[in-house]
Amino acid sequence: DAKKSDDMKVLQLNVCSDQEVAQAAEFVKNNLKEPEKGLWGSVNTGMSAFREVEFTSSHTCKEVEDVNLWGTVRVIKVFLPHIHSHKGRVVNITSMLGRIASPSCSSYCLSSFGVAAFSDCLQPEMHRWGACVLLFEPSNFGATTGILMHDSIEAQAEELWSGASKAVQADYGKPYVTCQITLLKSFINSSLTDALASTYPYPRYSPTEAYWR
């Protein structure tokens, strides 16, 4: 009950569906308190697939890009007219893996680099309207987004092992997979609030541990 709010609206949205994104845009338009002022902000999210290339199926790679990259592009394009009319902002959450490529993260890096490039191109285009496009590049935002929570990590570990061919399993061994999964850590970060609500936001936010700097 404490989380209920008359100002909060929840709706189903598959970012891979043109139809659902269009329906979401219409829903938002019809529920704005001041439609003439447009929409203030849009924040994306995504999914992870942390595994080495030989463990990654083409289906998994495509799924990550469809959600993280093309889903982001699809949603932003639909909502941009509402955002720039209010001089609002787009906050795209990627990762430091959109700046520094890392082993075991090829699919995720590919989508993060893509969203970063898209954001850099969109920023000057939106500047003429007084709207902002910001990039949020945490090293691991898992504790807040759930993208790298313990249960999620364990499920991914089991999925990538059972989905690997016998030859790949024999070459790498189960202990190797277990070791790689335990390297993933989570921490909570609050800089996202500043990116969305600050009067003078930074163009990029990179809340990271020291070793990324």
Automatic annotation (TrEMBL):
GO biological process: steroid metabolic process
GO MF term list: oxidoreductase activity
SUPFAM superfamilies: NAD(P)-binding Rossmann-fold domains
Pfam families referenced in this protein's UniProt entry, alphabetically: adh_short
Family: Belongs to the short-chain dehydrogenases/reductases (SDR) family.
Annotated protein name in UniProt: 3-hydroxybutyrate dehydrogenase 1
Taxonomy of the source species: Eukaryota, Metazoa, Chordata, Craniata, Vertebrata
